[in-house]
Each structure stands twice: as structure tokens, then as C-alpha cells.
User: Fold this.
Amino acid sequence: MSNYEFGGRSDIEKALDMLVNLDDVQSNALAVLEIDSEIERLQRELDKYDLDPNHVPDDDFIEILSGYVERADDWNSARP
Assistant:
């Protein structure tokens, strides 16, 4: 998402929802651990945002988040 702009809480929640759904259908234990780690990372950032709605995550997090938001949009558009 080269034109991605951080959308605040809603983007973090979208990424979290997608990862939770992915976690629920994943059967590979290593993948589950990796997904759980990313869920925790997103939750920590969400907590920071809740404490300060003006909080803007660092560039590395935004880059990762943009990928999750893109995948979440794909995931949601593929669901009936």
C-alpha cells in the first residue's frame, strides 16, 4: 500500500480482526505462535493509541500495519 496513510484505531482494529480470524483457522503451531506475537504487538500499539489518540506509530509499525490492512481488505472482500 504505497499510498497508505495511518487511519488510527480503525486500522489497528481491522488488522487485529484479520489476525484473530487467521489464528482461529490456523493449525500449524509455529504459525499460531507467530500470529499471536503479532496480535500482541498490535494490541500494545492500540493501547498506546487509546492513551493518546494523537499517537502515531513509528514508520516500521506503519509499514507492517499497511500490509495487514491490505490483507484484511482482501480477506473481507473474499468472504461471502
User: Anything to note?
Assistant: The two ends are 24 Å apart (CA to CA). The mean pLDDT is 90.
